[in-house]
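Deviation from plan, reported transparently: nicotinamide-adenine-dinucleotide complex.
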Amino acid sequence: MFTPFQNEYPYANFSEDRPKRKMEEALNLVSGQSGRVCPLVIGGRRIETVEQREIKNPARWSQILGSVCQAPLEMADVAVKAASAAFPSWSALSATERARYFVAAAAILRRRIYEFSAAMVLEASKSWIEAYADAAEAIDFLEFYAREAVRWQQPGATTPFAGEENEVLQLPLGVGVIIAPWNFPLAILAGMTAAAAVTGNTVVMKPAEQTSIIASRFMDLLELAGLPAGVVNYLPGPGESVGAALVEHPGVRFISFTGSRDVGVQIHAKAAVVQPGQKWLKRTVLEMGGKDAIIVDQGVNLDVVAAEVVASAFGFQGQKCSACSRLIAHTAVYDELLIKIVERTRKLVVGDPAQFGVHMGAVIDREAYTKILNYVSIGQQEGRILMGGADRETQDQTGWYVHPVIFADVAPDARIACEEIFGPVLSCIRADSWDHAIEIANGTDYGLTGAAFSYNRAHLEQARREFHVGNLYLNRKCTGALVDVQPFGGFNMSGTDSKAGGREYLGHFLQAKSISERW
Ligand code: NAD
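Because the crystal trials were delayed, the predicted structure below was used instead.
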């Protein structure tokens, strides 16, 4: 029997000596591993390829972090076959036996949390606390899904029927593909992989190109925990080639994807096509982008609101699917609130996050940098710039730094108010009333997170009913969901609302078998 699940919380407090020293030591350790070459891992075999991708620190281009072998297209088939070969013995284990591998992996990760956090500081340019929270969430996913798998193994309740014994069992699906994003390079990858594997499936794990070294570290961790060969296979490579080949493979039974709307929509369409030799309809779990809003009523404490907006908008450079990218404030408080938000934002330290005390690092890569600055140019036509926006001119060219940008007086249907920018850009919109604020908030194609600040009970109840998002927060920020505290997933173009970290989640990776015996 495992002990009851508990979140890995609170996080380390880096203003204390010991955590600070441990993080500095870990950063030194990981910086010294720059010669690392990450091979593919298929059926337990380590395969080095000729083509490799060099990974650089986004905040310090001169720092090479290692090289990642890139899977050639034909390796997709080899990996699916390895996962398929591992399926019969893995799926035959009890859920409790499978769960122990993931509890063991969580224990190793807990002991090495500073090392994994440091790896994310360097590879994803996360601040210390953001990196630590990512690693802590990965531990939560491993521990929580392990316990959940045991619970799901219990036969489901049915209505008694005289003369018969009836039961419903949950069985794994088969071979799955895990396609992960770079922005939670450990937590989301570990969560999606653990959920699929602990329920008895075997998987091919396709990490994001930008953060494939962290994914390789996670693969090593699973091997250290003793996971049998072929249960999880590590297949780094470009999404458009290797990722697409995996999605279309007839031997694949399901795809669990987290990433952008465009890629999610493509996967949805491709997975629907039945390939020659394919005996099932593929299942897809697709978690995609957001254009998340915080709405603010009159009469609230604006200092509290400003602090929560700044944390939601600029934490990890605004590169969270849950980040606040629209502030919608009642006209009575709009001007005063914007002054407070700008004041607070000016205090954020932007720089190399390996340095203690830096709040915001670099954005992930050149593509992100260019995309964000392009939206800043669009914003200059669509709104009034309150701060930031001059990065191209002021930047010392050592990393992909974008300083926070705030636009005021943005129209609800402006591009910067409707399209996901995925960077530190906040669009502020004036609302005439609470009804108007909710209407604006619901006015995009997305529906992932949202927050409402009000001290008016009726307004809060209205937000509960009408603010159409998968994760709604009242009187707090819209980022920072915790496993099994706020199950996570969005509506509309934000995805399939799978509710990662929730008690329904493992059902996506299982199929129910109903058995009836007449006596
Ligand atoms: P992305 O869609 O560019 O890439 C995600 C993954 O898909 C990567 O592994 C990539 O290699 C792969 N991929 C790319 N093209 C593919 C194709 N044609 N076929 C198969 N796989 C392909 O997303 P990203 O830039 O890595 O991540 C940022 C996005 O993820 C943002 O839109 C963000 O909102 C979203 N996100 C959503 C959630 C959520 O829970 N809803 C969480 C984190 C990130």
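The first strand starts at residue 37 and ends at 38. We consider this an acceptable substitute for the interim report.
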